[in-house]
Amino acid sequence: MRSMRLVRRSLLAAWSALLVVLLVGILASHLIGLLGLRPYIIRGGSMEPAISLGSVAAVGNVSVDAIRPGDVLTMRQGDRPVITHRVITVLHAQDGTATFVTKGDPN
């Protein structure tokens, strides 16, 4: 009888923990949207160990002038897939455009 109570309490605790995790995840995803950010799943290992494969990043738009070497960018170049790399160098042209030299951390 005592062991049955222990099993019930353990199952209730496990279900409660799962419910809390799900609610926190739902609230976090809505909060990200309210802040103007988009969740993005990292699908490659080019930023490991800083950002692991399968991690979720909150991605938003920033001013080109705010980007500095060492920052991490998630970007699309033309028809290529989206990549997430670290900025190595920022090159500013006289016409006001900027070019970013980036690479993955282990590269």
Layout of secondary structure:
Layout: H1 2-34, E1 38-41, E2 56-59, E3 72-75, E4 83-92, E5 98-103
Antiparallel strand pairs: 1-2, 3-4, 4-5
Description:
The chain has 107 residues and is of the alpha+beta class. It has 1 helix and 5 strands. It has one helix at residues 2-34, and strands at 38-41, 56-59, 72-75, 83-92, 98-103. Strands 3-4-5 form a 3-stranded antiparallel sheet, with no helix packed on it. A two-stranded antiparallel sheet has the order 1-2. The model has no long low-confidence stretch (mean pLDDT 88).
Main pleated-sheet profile = 3 strands, antiparallel
Helix fraction by DSSP (H/I, runs of at least 4): 25-40%
Annotation, overall tally of beta strands: 5
Query: What is the 3D shape?
Result: elongated
- Series of secondary-structure elements, N-terminal to C-terminal: HEEEEE
Radius of gyration: 21 Å
Percent range for β-strand residues: 25-35%
